[in-house]
Every structure is written in structure tokens, then in C-alpha cells.
Amino acid sequence: MSHSILDLIGNTPLIKASSLINNPNITLYLKLEGHNPGGSVKDRAAYNMIKSALDRGDIDKNTKLIEATSGNTGIALAMIAGIFKLDIELVMPENSTKERVQTMRAYGAKVTLTTKDVGIEGARDYAEAKVNNDGYVMLNQFANEDNWLAHYKTTGPEIWRDTNGTITHFVSSMGTTGTIMGTSTYLKEKSKEIQIVGVQPTDDSSIPGIRKWPKEYLPKIFNPSKVDQVIEVSQDEATNMTKRLAKEEGVFAGMSSGGSVTAALKLAETLDSGVLVAIICDRGDRYLSSDLFE
């Protein structure tokens, strides 16, 4: 029995893809992060960042928290900040889906929308200015070691356990890069032969949750030596795969998950055998007001 909603973070299901892989010598597993209570993989990092900061005394109930987010981290932070009775302001571009904005507000967070033309970079700049000028504290998922450590402590060990140590390739979309950094660190300690594959959008593509950052905005927690290969995915490929996941696998997810599975299938075409694990970052219900499933 769980005694708190926080006890439900992690230990998400790992399922075998039933129709996407034709090679009998290759197995593709999907890690269903939408089963976290906040609906995405970001619950792990948000909880570890807030709990660790509280334990160290870096923040308390008088702290004014602020964070820039494209969506999932904001929802997770809003949920967990509410549980710990912390005030938090979340900053995101105005073209974010209304489901995300409404969910954050439902958890009790203040949501500030920046103009869509400045994107997530502009939201980050706004949050930085509030920290520098108005006494706010930013958890800063892009530079916070507790982000990737969440996955070192939970996601990596779960994948190793649930594949019985047979995993050969780990595939993850890259945004803040916390998921791939922490999981890579753990899995490489278990076997240096495990290949870590990051997913980025092609230059002309916009895929929520996957970024190819300008140099000045590159997450400080990112260490390129922990990624063996990067596969680029187009917006159309990610969209089409997201729809296939729902129709063929019964996995209802967002476009970043379609991106990671697209990359996993591209990878599989180059392999004779292997056990692949791809991250399914969140649930599809927070994209219903977009044109993703039209």
C-alpha cells in the first residue's frame, strides 16, 4: 500500500512492443513514464530536485520558487510543490497546450506565459531575470545535478532490473537531458557495452520535449561523453509514430515519445540482434487541444 502520492513516482511499467519490430532477434521495450502520478517522466526529477533542496536547507516554505518549462516539468513541479506547501511560479511559452497550463494551475501554481516568438529560451530568460532582480529561487532543471541524479537512482536501476540485465541499447529523447544523463551513468556502470542513444529533432522540426539547443542555452548537466550516438528525427516522423503507438500498441503518448520510438526503429534497422529500451515520456491526453491526433 502507498502512503503518499509521492510513493507512486517511479517503478513504471516496461512493456514489449508487439508490432513495431519485425526482426525476431531484436526486442523493443517501452518504458511507460505516463504512469507516474503527474503523468510524465519529469515527476522523478521534480521530486528529487525539491526534496533534495529541502533536505539541504536550500529552500523552505518562505522561498519563492520559479522555473521555466515547456510543460511536463512544470506539471510535476506544481504537483510536488503543492504537496510540500511551497509557492511556485512556472513560466512557459503562450503556445503551450491549454491542458498543461490548466493542470499546473489546478495543482496551485502561478503560471506566466511568455510570447511564443521567444520560445522556451525566452521563458528561461524571464525566470533568470526574476531570480536576479526579485529574490526568486530557481531550481534550474537545466543545470541542477539533482535532475540527472533522479534517473541515476531510479530509472536506470529499474531498466536494468526489468530487463534482467539484458539491455543492449537505451534510447531517449533529449530536452533538459536529465533522463539520458542519469540513466546512462547508471547503465554504463553495469556494462560499458550498453549503447546510449540520444534523440534530437532535425533542423527544420519542432517537437515538444526534444530540443537541439543553441550553444548558449545548452543544459549545463549535459555531458556528451555519456551519449554514444545521436539520431535525428523529423517532426513528421515523430507525429506519425505517435499515432502508430496509439493505434498499434495501445500506447497513448506525446510527440517526444514518437520521436524516441522512431529513433529506436531506425537503430534497429542497423542491428542483427539486441534488446532496446525506449522512453515513453508522458501521456497523450495533454495534447488533445493540439493538432497532434487530427
UniProtKB/TrEMBL annotation:
Q: Spell out the CDD domains in the cross-references.
A: CBS_like (cd01561)
Q: Which GO terms describe its biological process?
A: cysteine biosynthetic process from serine
The chain residues annotated with the modification N6-(pyridoxal phosphate)lysine are 42
Alphabetically, the GO molecular function entries are: cysteine synthase activity
Q: Which InterPro entries match?
A: Cys_synth, Cys_Synth/Cystath_Beta-Synth, CysM, P-phosphate_BS, TrpB-like_PALP, TrpB-like_PALP_sf
User: What catalytic activity does the UniProt entry give for this protein?
Assistant: O-acetyl-L-serine + hydrogen sulfide = L-cysteine + acetate
Q: Which cofactors go with this protein?
A: pyridoxal 5'-phosphate
Top-level enzyme category: transferase
The protein's Enzyme Commission number: 2.5.1.47
Query: Which residues hold pyridoxal 5'-phosphate?
Result: 72, 175-179, 256
Mind listing the UniProt keywords for this protein, alphabetically? Amino-acid biosynthesis, Cysteine biosynthesis, Pyridoxal phosphate, Transferase
Q: Which residues form the Tryptophan synthase beta chain-like PALP domain?
A: 6-282
* Pfam families (alphabetical): PALP (PF00291)
Q: In which pathway does it act?
A: Amino-acid biosynthesis; L-cysteine biosynthesis; L-cysteine from L-serine: step 2/2
Give the family from UniProt. Answer: Belongs to the cysteine synthase/cystathionine beta-synthase family.
Recorded protein name is Cysteine synthase
Encoding gene (name): cysM
